[in-house]
Amino acid sequence: MAHKRYKQQKTNVAARVAIVGVAACALVASIGMGVASGVAGAPEGVDSFGIAETRTASSEPSSLAISASDTAVVETSSLQSAAPRDISAGIAEIEAEEEAARIAAEEAARAEEEARIAAAEEARAAQAEVVVQEQEVVAEDTTSLSEVDWSVGKDAFVAEWTARIDAYLAGSALAGQGATFALAAWENGVDPRFSPAISNTESSKGGSCFLPYNAWGWGESSWSNWSDAINAHVAGLGASYGYSLTLENAAKYCPPHATEWYNKTLAQMQLI
């Protein structure tokens, strides 16, 4: 009886051990399936021990990678936009405009020079008729004066008469003003010897002016420098007295002693 009870207890223990083993296997299987399911469908933010993160990084581009890609596209587009453009057409157009302006300026200067020459020649021709009529009443006439060559053009004219007038005025108060006289004569179509010679007749070449810088006994005018004075006097001669010296304009310039004044001034013009 006791043996039978022992055998029955042994059988019950074995059954219990078997049941526990089956339950343990079932539990392990359940846990394994749960882990696998969690890895496959875990939402973002759930800690899956790096498995999901690795899969995500390898299968989908990150926002940083997309941003870098977009930046590269923008930079490439900017570089292409900033690439050197062909501006040769614009440069050629500017150069053509500058050349046209230069040519126009040269033509204008040439036209002005030709007009100055024509005006001076016309004034000289008109005066020649007056001189012929005066020859019988004056001691001398202007036919003894050398002709002024206006056809050489401005530069040559100014260069020649600057040297001649400077030589005439050397050592006087007006020394060194040859260029001022020469240029003023060209611009006003006046004999370049006219004003310098009058300065000697009236003030010994500026040595005894009755008013500041007035070397010509001309009205009641005064100036602050020789340049302004010379330009004003030469312009006044051209506007009111004509191309050069005549008895008629001598009578207008110095009525009381016209003939004497004329002869003295003419003698000085012959020295220049």
Describe this structure in words.
The protein is mainly alpha-helical. The chain contains ten helices and no strands. The protein starts with a helix and ends with a helix.
Major β-sheet annotation? none
Mean pLDDT: 76
Series of secondary-structure elements, N-terminal to C-terminal: HHHHHHHHHH
* Count of DSSP strands: 0
Secondary structure elements and pairings:
Elements: H1 2-41, H2 51-59, H3 63-81, H4 88-134, H5 154-169, H6 178-188, H7 194-203, H8 226-240, H9 247-253, H10 258-271
Keywords:
mainly alpha, 0% strand, elongated, single chain, disordered N terminus, 272 residues
Compose a concise summary of this entry.
The protein is mainly alpha-helical. The protein is 69% helix and 0% strand.
